[in-house]
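tool_log.txt
---
The assistant was asked to compare two proteins side by side. It first ran the structure predictor on the initial sequence, then on the second. Raw inputs and outputs are pasted verbatim so the downstream comparison step can read them without reformatting.
(1)
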Amino acid sequence: MTTVMPEGEALRRAVKWISEEIGEHPDKSVQKLVNEAVARFDLSPRDTDFLMSFYKKGGSTPQAN
């Protein structure tokens, strides 16, 4: 299975942060987390669309070993 990696350091940090937040607070809305990440990491509308699509499809980051 191929893992899609977002381009740009801010977007990568946002994916990592959202994934960690979902792990710590599974009751939080993904929409709310994405909106928070957009502000926190100064993301573009294109990045926002990517995040919403990524998490709508059940995306997650690979676990470090």
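(2)
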Amino acid sequence: MDNMYRNKWLILGAVSLALFMGTVDSTIVNVALPTMVADFNTNFPTIQWVVLAFLLGLSVLMLSVGRLADMLGKKRIFLLGLVIFTAGSALCGLSPTVYVLIAARLIQSIGAAMLLALGVAIVTETWPSAERGKALGFSAGVISLGIVVGPTAGGLIINALSWHWIFFVNVPLGLLALIAVWRYVPPLTPKSNHEQFDFLGAGVFAVGLLALLLGLTVGQTIGFGDPRILALFGLAAVSLVLFIAIEQRVRFPMVDLNLFRNLQFSLNLATGALTFVAIAAVVFLLPFYLELALSLPVAQVGILMASTPLVLAVLGPLSGSLSDRFGTRPVSVIGLAILTVGYLVASTMNATTTPLGFILRMLLIGVGMGVFQSPNNSAIMGAAPRNRLGIASGMLSITRTLGQTTGIALLGALFASALSIYAGQPTDISAASPEVISSALHDQFLLVAGLIGIGLVLALLAWRRERRAASAATVQPDAA
């Protein structure tokens, strides 16, 4: 263990490179969506599936991947994920139609699930607990750097070459990450390999989650009141109940439900999900606003989209170190408060907003996410035992991707409805006026500000309860 800690920076660097690659890919795709709509001669609901197919695969697979890694070894699964993700990226770049691209993104998501479900677990296990916040903050900073590089590089690549090349950049990065992880990350062999994989629980969970996500996404096109969509939601609800019943009875469950009895673990998962519901919808919609409402060139859109994650990259390691010193709850609460104000300020953007005005309005959102994310992740992972780090990391990743999928699906549907309301007739985003697009975006910012506000209230109540519990624990021995 001491030797592993001596190599902690090399391990962190190797894992962060893999996470950086996955982040660059996802942010590059967002910038390319308007270009793909024109190139494939498709529409807004269809092009969403380039993003949603990837998120669907991630959400369905990550919990199973985390459990398998706890049983078989995290490094082995992580390396396999790098191979699949790199190959899937090449297939995406070679796609001749939007439907082939969507299928290739599903393949790519299999590898991405292995990377994103295990990156935080590997860092948590290979760093001392007293420095966990700093390590996870550094990882968050690298991921944010990927978010910065993605839009900027995407805009430049699309402007100079074509959207195909935004996927090809993953091939050399994937090979480099594969070598680094193979060389520096230790085997991380499980302490016990006698446990069995819960195939029934995994299958029921996958069916239920897939039904939920399909209902959220397909419902945008055919309507959420359609009997088929209601049936999907019903299947999701039944699957959830059945999954919980299975996990309470099997000897080696997919998810240790006792983890949710820890207030810090369960509440931070919930607040983290809310922040990703908000940020996913905004990141998805902003390129359309910048290109269609403000009439900015795609290269400039990429640079502007990088402004917020640049702040994240700087503040992630700092907030992680602060949480090691002052505790995760106060730092994360401050982050949520800043984030709420940030979305309210961003709601003032309109059809005449300048690029500088856009950056200044988005600055607070970057500061809020930068302050909140690292201590929140540290609190979640710190609440899990070592033999459940893969599951905890997988659940953390699921809340992130499920939040993103829900945000894009629900808020995307609300945005499309708002476009028609402000236009006075059914309209697609490509035909909407700058004023209509700006008004619809304004409503989305106010809505997500409300969501983050709910998370802030929950975090404040939990903080108050934790302080009372700590005071009681201090008074009781003195009284004795």
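---
observation on (2): The chain has two domains: 2-187+254-470, 199-253. The mean pLDDT is 79.
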